[in-house]
Amino acid sequence: MTQPVSIEFTELDLDAIAEFEGRVAVIIPPSGKMDAAARRANRLTKGALKRLVESEGWEKAKSGDLTTLAWPAGMAAKALHVLCLDRGASALETRKGGAALAKSKGEDALLVLAAQVRRGADLAQGIALRAYAFNERKSQPPKMQGPVTMAVSKPEEVSDAAAPLLSVAEGVLMTRDLVSEPANHLTTVEFAERIKGMADIGLKITVLEEKDLKSLKMDLLLSVGHGSVTPSKVAIMEWSGGQKGTAPLALVGKGVVFDTGGISLKPAAGMEEMTMDMGGAGVVVGTMKALALRKAKANVVGLVGLVENMPSGQATRPGDVVTSMKGDTVEIINTDAEGRLVLADVLWHAQKKFKPAAVLNLATLTGAVIIALGHENAGVFSNDDAFCNKLLKSAGAEGEGAWRLPLGEAYDKQLKSDIADMKNVGGRPAGSITAAQFLQRFIEDGMPWIHLDIAGTARVSKDTDFAPKGATGWGVMTLNRLVADHFEET
Ligand code: BES
Ligand code: MN
Ligand code: ZN
To answer: What is d(CA 58, CA 43) in angstroms, rounded to the nearest whole number?
Structure first.
């Protein structure tokens, strides 16, 4: 597993600025007003910073912009970074500033002179989120990440404020690792092992094996894994940080460790991307890790359906009719619409077993959501405006894109089957919505529910504000905030 970069908080030592090897960062507001640390760096570099803030370029500088002076004279450092950051910068802006620093830091040690920064904890979180690379599958991984030292005015206070934020960042990193892992390494067995490892941080872990799933009648989920040699599993993570007896929030994730499409085989081009088809489960696991590490005062249960969708002589055929745990029958028109089959049974089990206050599921469910929203926003579907607005607000506050799409009876009709209670596909029009309609059939009346289609946001092909290209961990920050703001006792 990727280790988060080490971040230490110390008091400002002006004399250390000249001697620090690695990289040094100063923070200057758009006004150009320098604090003691910046003034010292300016003096050491014979006025370079003064010339910078008096330059035409600085006039145009926006909060969050980063300027780098390489091999500054008068300092031992490799580079002097100047982060332009408003004194009144929001948490999100401050985090983006931290991320910009982490991006330029590479593997070097970094000294951040942050005594003037109001939100030092957010700056630290931004650094922790962006100082990430997936090197687990390289025979010669790059040398250890150099540590980060943040010189702040009240180290203990900032360190205490940063602790929960760094816990959340650790959750995000775990999600990214899971999403990045290839399917020969992250089998359902290995996935369940990593989840079991989280018992260490106080989570109660249960893994349901195929025989358990058979007795629970989760035949829809089992039908997806029939073609694979890696066994189907459901892993359950319980965090009971709230009052005893308070109904939990249930988080449910699609964990298809590889999606070939099954007998409805996908085309070869791009099929390798389907290692990320466990992204929903990855976010559930990362969120549970964040909640446990920061000891959230809430009851939350995470359930993930772990399966592999492979073609074989035992695989489910197009046209097969399978009975769900709920009891409804499904005509499987296309074995590539497998995520909804997995989720249907896990959603049903989550409601029956845990009687949750609300249910939220995540899945890399449809290619159609990428056509609709690209990689900027996850698709949001809900039967409950109040619950949905809370989620949208949390996503907005964390800078994670989320956009609500409609549900409706007319879409539901597209799932009508001639021989069973429903089909698993609704045709080409509104493919993401009919997938959501399918899931809604497995939500009990009156249960507040949100479905997040993260096919476009779980992994992206260019850098984002907080992650290098690849797995983003989209959703962990949002779900953590949703819990903090609406499910946690104060
Ligand atoms: N895992 C895919 C969806 C997906 C596509 C995720 C691209 C990430 C990137 C899902 O299981 C799938 O194959 N969906 C089909 C549904 C169709 C058969 C109705 C799709 O989107 O084409
Ligand atoms: Mn599929
Ligand atoms: Zn899939």
So the answer is: 19
For the chain, the first-to-last Cα distance in angstroms comes to: 33
CA 417 to chain centre: 36
| Catalytic (active site) residue 393 | no
Considering all CA atoms of the chain, what is the largest pairwise distance in Å, rounded to the nearest integer?
82
Residue 276 tokens, joined: 């990320």
- Rounded Cα–Cα distance for residues 200 and 264 (Å): 41
Task: Give the mean model confidence (pLDDT) for residues 53-82.
Answer: 95
**pLDDT classification of 367: cutoffs 50, 70, 90:** very high
- Cα 82 to Cα 132: distance, rounded to the nearest angstrom: 21
- Residue spans of alpha helices (H) in 106-228: 120-130, 155-180, 188-196, 210-215, 219-225
H or E segment to which residue 369 belongs: helix 368-373
Pocket test for ligand 1, best of 336, 371, 434, 460 (most atoms within 8 A of CB): 336
Q: What is the pLDDT of residues 95-130, one digit of tens each?
A: 999 999 999 999 999 999 999 999 999 999 999 999
CA–centroid distance, 332 to ligand 3, in Å, is: 14
Distance 338 CA to ligand 2 centre (A): 5
Query: CB neighbours of 272 closer than 8 A, spacing ≥ 6?
Result: none
Residue nearest to atom 8 of ligand 1 (CA): 455
Tell me the DSSP string of 221-276: HHHHHTT-SSPPEEEEEEEE-S-TTPPPEEEEEEEEEEE--TTSPPPSTTGGGGGG
Residue 84: strand pairing partners: 28
pLDDT at 143 over 90: no
Question: Strand order in 79-84's β-sheet?
Answer: 7-10, 148-151, 110-113, 23-28, 79-84, 66-70
The pTM (predicted TM-score) of the whole model is 0.98
Please give the Cα distance from 53 to 33 (Å, whole number): 9
CA of 272 to the centre of ligand 1 (A): 13
Verify whether residue 204 is a known catalytic residue.
no
Provide CB contacts within 8 A for 385, sequence distance 6+. none
* Catalytic choice (266, 297, 393, 404): 266
Q: What is the pLDDT of residues 431-442, one digit of tens each?
A: 999 999 999 999
Q: How many CA atoms lie within 13 A of 316 on its CB side?
A: 31
- Concatenating the DSSP letter of every residue in 285-347 gives HHHHHHHHHTT-SSEEEEEEEEEEE--STTSPPTT-EEE-TTS-EEE-S-TT--HHHHHHHHH
